[in-house]
Give the backbone structure.
Amino acid sequence: MGTNESGAPALPEDSRQLSREDIIHLLRSEGKDRERLFSLADATRVGGVGDAVHLRGIIEFSNYCTKNCLYCGLRKGNSRLQRYRMTTEEILETAHIGAEAGVRTIVLQSGEDPFFTADTLARLIGELKERHDMAVTMSVGERKKSDYGLMRKAGADRYLLKQETADPTLFAKLRPGTTLEGRRRRLLWLKELGFQVGSGGMVGLPGQTVETLAEDILLMRDLDVEMAGIGPFIPNGDTPLAQCAGGDVDMTLKMLAIARLVMPFAHLPATTALASIHPEGRQMALRCGANVVMPDITPVQYKKLYRIYPHKISVTEDGAIESIPRIVRMILDSGRYVARDLGHGGKSVAAKWQNRRMAE
Ligand code: SAM
Ligand code: SF4
């Protein structure tokens, strides 16, 4: 790729082809070049997925976890955390409240909690699909392939399993007992099983560099993910990374913008983590390529215990359901609208887009 007068990379016509060096250059961009990156990402978002913003209502149904990830407050070694599990009835009731408020996707997320066997989860998914015309995304961590198969068979549409970091050494250090290769293998299984697969990572992890961030983008592009959740790492005082600096808004927005350039049709959330470190975090993300917001609809008595990191924005909101009208208002104030469809993967959007271009 060449450069423009200011020395910044002149983006190729098809920005999906950005090289590792281009991405590193863009991650280092400042001033006018950085603004240009953001406006190109916004234009790519308009062309790829349009102005609609999809609401994905997240229910954090258990904060038990058998894993010990160094960055996360739910790690099993955190004895200060009061643990909870929602009952099946509570989960179904919460999903119902979300559906009534206009949410078309429910994301079921938890720590890695073996109490919820694949059979239990499959029954829950079946019940949700029976009661509502909505998409179901699962985010329950690393499981056996047969477990994923049961969830898919029960009707789950999507699975969110972030790579967290594409640096294998850092990954193994931050997630004891697991490997990046194991994560990648699971992402491939999930694709094979027909899930729309979401990945993503944290920005600002200790030991991360712009080079490894570029690898994160390339990994997501190689995996051809339908969704990419990119948010800042926020240190949690009850974890071994308590004293670390954490990610900043600027680098997170650059990662998001580059992700949009290389994946024009992917669903990219304006993450809760970004909104938690900046009051305008979601609005800024929506201007840099994001097209999804994930309101936390977990009942308030539980969501304050799903303490992945401190000052989670949704915890300061007064209750599960009030947050949705507020988020809808923010979306409309940003000049966007709330999608009414189920918000399935960008591939169908891509096909539509290609047909439109062929017709032109
Ligand atoms: N246990 C499942 C897993 O690990 O995939 C799902 C739950 S986990 C809490 C969901 C996400 O929280 C992770 O993918 C990670 O990116 C994010 N997370 C954990 N600790 C974080 C922190 N300190 N700052 C920002 N994000 C964090
Ligand atoms: Fe458990 Fe997920 Fe937190 Fe790791 S990131 S400790 S697997 S909840």
